[in-house]
């Protein structure tokens, strides 16, 4: 039966070599390919009342021709035909370009149906389609496909009609009847008919609903099957940590953990104890206290006789972690070491040998940790900070340095749930959604660029009080195309303004990483008062004395990134400020600025960002980790995603699913993905 569908499209009447080539450009080779090519939108041909149609909107009206058409020749085979028409109570003009042949077909008194764009001011329809007679015989909706070359929509639809009539019955239903009934979903045949040949709007909606659910269910089944195999895999390490010692550690802290910190500690501890390999994502807004959680978990591993590793994306961050962990853990006799690109050869050799012999309990550092010469004695737990900065490959290497160690990824990017269960669906997720008590909110203001002098005064005020300031610029070089403030320019301007008073530093992506670290170090030691920087400063740097941040061209950033940047201030006891310099042109840009001023919660901002900019922009173009969906849309179909996820989880956990015939098609979805043989999605 499958072979009926995998036949070439040339089996269809009218599809010869030329048409087949055009179809090939649309990636359509087989009959099945054709059937699964969905329209990207549906044209609405329902009749509308012109009185209620806004300017520039597409409209279909029925009416009577009232004049003899006139044709104006514009040269180069171009022409403009105009005719008067009475549509309801409206006497309007209808214009068609390059369709001079209509002149002889249109006569006063005829009834026609016209579709086109409504120019309300001039009372003109710029026609794209005309049919003779009343609207009755036409479908209300017509699918529009992204056809290539000379292939017309009409022809494409004609082939589709044939394909569905002759081969539609061979398309297999993957959803068991119980699901179709439970959610009142169309069968596969109904849905294909509805998406390709809708009679009314409801048809396309119902069809889409079915395909969205099916697509998300298939996706979730693969993910949940993967999670299940991992959970059942007993080859990981069971870390039998010392509860008493861990308690002593928490008691030694100058503060009590927040409720959210306690909750995630429990979640992670459960993973540590069990023999399956932990693969967990720890999300927590900037300043939510992830580091202390990481320290506690590493200590837990140490109390069970294992080594731990903590990897950070930059040297300065690795150093900050090293300082904190030394302060917290050395009193408990934990032996720590820091390994980065700037560790001297002799020290490095010593660290490596002590690591291998097991005399170092916790190794912290940058990606220097994943070099082949770094050999652990008994690695039990790996934690990576700001995980989105590490490539998948680097994460894998680190994981393989032990015998299936538990792995915890930390990120300060709040990720909306829909994206997190899609991009990181095969991971367990822990969330710290609460900030330690007593944090002062960062006062955020949005001002126009022309008000920069006032901003400068406010900055000077903070500097006089002994505080420090960040100035963030989007790009490092002048560009003709983008009217973007240049970090170097801003640096020079500020250096002149503050000359003899305050030290200004400059950091951007073109600096070598040692240079970046050196500048960052000077800033964190207070030798620089102002740091002009591109967004390289974004990753978890902690300079509690910095209380003032100016972000140039703030409208160029997404909300998630603005929030990350803003999180660099407000880390100490002093009131902090964030000034957004922006003259956004679009409504969306304005809305983003307003959200930043009004909303401080990273998760709410992330949801907003997703809503405003869509999933593609959320993680940035580079490594989105997001699968591409054919019909589903992560912003609008989040409920379906939740449902599909729940159903998939229940399925893979049930006996019946793995045995009964009704579920065979769904099982094949999992089997064909290779997941059960241990292939991974990431
Ligand atoms: P992030 O999650 O951004 O990495 P950090 O771990 O750097 O946050 O924590 C920010 C600051 O909050 C640190 O100075 C840390 O010691 C402090 N901190 C962490 N947990 C608590 C808590 N429960 N109560 C008070 N302060 C805390
Ligand atoms: Mg951090």
TrEMBL record:
Plays a critical role in recombination and DNA repair. Helps process Holliday junction intermediates to mature products by catalyzing branch migration. Has replication fork regression activity, unwinds stalled or blocked replication forks to make a HJ that can be resolved. Has a DNA unwinding activity characteristic of a DNA helicase with 3'-5' polarity. It comes from the Bacteria. Residues 451-616 form the Helicase C-terminal domain. It catalyses: Couples ATP hydrolysis with the unwinding of duplex DNA by translocating in the 3'-5' direction; ATP + H2O = ADP + phosphate + H(+). PANTHER family: ATP-DEPENDENT DNA HELICASE HOMOLOG RECG, CHLOROPLASTIC (PTHR47964). This is ATP-dependent DNA helicase RecG. The gene is recG. Residues 271-432 form the Helicase ATP-binding domain. Its EC number is 5.6.2.4. Keywords: ATP-binding, DNA damage, DNA recombination, DNA repair, DNA-binding, Helicase, Hydrolase, Isomerase, Nucleotide-binding. Belongs to the helicase family. RecG subfamily. It holds the Pfam family RecG_dom3_C. GO terms for molecular function: DNA helicase activity; hydrolase activity.
């Amino acid at each position: 039966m499958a072979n009926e569908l995998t036949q070439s499209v040339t089996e269809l009447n009218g599809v010869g070599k030329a048409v087949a080539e055009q179809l090939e450009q649309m990636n359509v080779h087989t009959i099945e390919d054709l059937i699964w090519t969905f329209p990207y939108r549906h044209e609405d041909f329902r009749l509308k009342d012109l009185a209620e149609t806004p300017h520039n909107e597409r409209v279909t009206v029925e009416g009577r021709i009232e004049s003899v058409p006139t044709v104006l020749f514009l040269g180069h085979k171009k022409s403009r035909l105009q005719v008067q028409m009475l549509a309801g109570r409206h006497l309007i003009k209808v214009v068609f370009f390059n369709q001079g042949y209509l002149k002889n077909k249109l006569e006063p008194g005829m009834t026609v149906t016209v579709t086109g764009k409504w120019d309300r001011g001039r009372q003109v329809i710029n026609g794209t389609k005309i049919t003779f007679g009343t609207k009755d015989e036409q479908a209300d909706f017509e699918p529009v496909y992204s056809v290539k070359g000379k292939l017309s929509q009409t022809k494409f639809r004609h082939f589709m009609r044939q394909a569905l009539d002759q081969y539609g019955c061979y398309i297999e239903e993957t959803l068991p009847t119980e699901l179709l009934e439970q959610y009142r979903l169309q069968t596969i045949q109904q849905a294909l008919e509805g998406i390709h040949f809708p009679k009314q709007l409801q048809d396309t909606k119902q069809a889409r609903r079915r395909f969205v659910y099916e697509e998300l269910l298939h996706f979730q089944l693969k993910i949940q099957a993967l999670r299940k195999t991992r959970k059942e895999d007993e080859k990981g390490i069971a870390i039998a940590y010392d509860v008493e010692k861990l308690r002593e550690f928490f008691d030694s802290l100058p503060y009590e953990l927040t409720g959210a910190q306690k909750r995630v500690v429990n979640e992670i501890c459960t993973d540590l104890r069990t023999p399956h390999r932990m693969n967990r994502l720890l999300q927590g807004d900037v300043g939510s206290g992830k580091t202390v959680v990481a320290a506690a978990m590493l200590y837990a591993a140490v109390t069970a006789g294992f080594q731990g590793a903590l990897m950070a994306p930059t040297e300065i961050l690795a150093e900050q972690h090293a300082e904190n962990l030394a302060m917290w853990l050395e009193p408990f006799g934990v032996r720590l070491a820091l390994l980065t690109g700037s560790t001297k050869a002799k020290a490095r050799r010593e660290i490596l040998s002590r690591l291998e012999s097991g005399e170092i309990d916790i190794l912290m550092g940058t990606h220097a940790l994943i070099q082949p010469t770094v050999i652990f004695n008994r690695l039990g737990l790996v934690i990576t900070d700001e995980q989105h900065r590490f490539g998948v490959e680097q994460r894998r290497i680190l994981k393989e340095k032990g015998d299936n160690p538990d792995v915890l990824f930390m990120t300060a990017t709040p990720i909306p749930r829909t994206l997190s269960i899609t991009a990181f669906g095969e991971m367990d997720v822990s969330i710290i959604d609460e900030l330690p008590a007593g944090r002062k909110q960062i006062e955020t203001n949005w001002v126009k660029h022309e008000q920069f002098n006032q901003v400068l005064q406010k900055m000077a005020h903070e500097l006089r009080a002994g505080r420090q300031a960040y100035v963030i610029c989007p790009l490092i070089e002048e560009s003709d195309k983008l009217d973007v403030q240049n970090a170097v320019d801003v640096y020079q301007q500020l250096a002149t303004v503050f000359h003899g008073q305050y030290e200004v530093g400059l950091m951007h992506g073109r600096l070598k990483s040692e240079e970046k670290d050196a500048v960052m170090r000077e800033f964190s030691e207070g030798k620089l008062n102002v740091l002009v920087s591109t967004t390289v400063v974004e990753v978890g740097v902690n300079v509690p004395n910095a209380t003032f941040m100016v972000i140039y061209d703030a409208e160029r950033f997404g909300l998630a990134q603005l929030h990350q940047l803003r999180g660099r201030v407000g880390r100490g006891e002093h009131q902090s400020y964030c000034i957004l310099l922006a003259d956004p042109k679009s409504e969306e840009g304005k809305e983003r600025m307003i959200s930043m001023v009004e909303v401080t919660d990273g998760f709410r901002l992330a949801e907003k960002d997703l809503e405003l900019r869509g999933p593609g922009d959320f993680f940035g173009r580079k490594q989105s980790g997001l699968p591409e969906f054919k019909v589903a849309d992560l912003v609008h179909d989040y409920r379906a995603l939740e449902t599909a996820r729940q159903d998939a989880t229940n399925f893979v956990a049930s006996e019946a699913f793995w045995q009964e015939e009704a579920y065979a098609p769904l099982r094949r979805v999992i089997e064909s993905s290779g997941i059960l043989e241990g292939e991974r999605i990431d």
